[in-house]
Automatic annotation (TrEMBL):
<dbReference type="Pfam" id="PF04828">
    <property type="entry name" value="GFA"/>
</dbReference>
<keyword id="KW-0456">Lyase</keyword>
<keyword id="KW-0862">Zinc</keyword>
<protein>
    <recommendedName>
        <fullName>CENP-V/GFA domain-containing protein</fullName>
    </recommendedName>
</protein>
<dbReference type="GO" id="GO:0046872">
    <property type="term" value="F:metal ion binding"/>
</dbReference>
<dbReference type="InterPro" id="IPR011057">
    <property type="entry name" value="Mss4-like_sf"/>
</dbReference>
<keyword id="KW-0479">Metal-binding</keyword>
<comment type="similarity">
    <text>Belongs to the Gfa family.</text>
</comment>
<dbReference type="GO" id="GO:0016846">
    <property type="term" value="F:carbon-sulfur lyase activity"/>
</dbReference>
<dbReference type="InterPro" id="IPR006913">
    <property type="entry name" value="CENP-V/GFA"/>
</dbReference>
<feature type="domain" description="CENP-V/GFA">
    <location>
        <begin position="19"/>
        <end position="145"/>
    </location>
</feature>
Amino acid sequence: MAAELLANPASKAGAIETTNGSCLCGSITYTISGTPSTTVLCHCTSCKKSSGSAFMANNFYEASVNPQFLSPPTDEISVFQLNITSPTSTLKMYNDTSPDAGGFVERSFCGDCGSNIFIRNPKWKGAVIVATGTLEYEKALKEWKPEAEFFCKRRGPWLSSIGANEETKFSAMT
């Protein structure tokens, strides 16, 4: 079940690596420490509209974004994998109430160029979801492969030969 992939968003075993990322215009830069707990293609309508594509490629990381960048600010999490490294005057947040899973997700994006940066979902308080396309590591992006797909009921039929293994394709997120 999809929920099992996300129930414990601890990073996978292995060397701690730091990866840089940024929006298209470079106004927002960040670092990610560690490896993602899972890699996902999401086919929900909300992610499709947000990404402007047939799906959205996401990396799930443990902990969350540094609380000074949240709206409203919080001190609930003391370990951060995602750290915004540039001035955040262009970082905007949108409470997206349209996800197929119900509820809402908080989408953070650049107010100048519109690039999606990360997503927080109240259902997964210990996780931050980073838009894979904003990462700047060429080798890892060449090796990136989805471990799961969510909302396959909305998956384009022409995508039949790409994506995750059949056993990790879910019609919804939970």
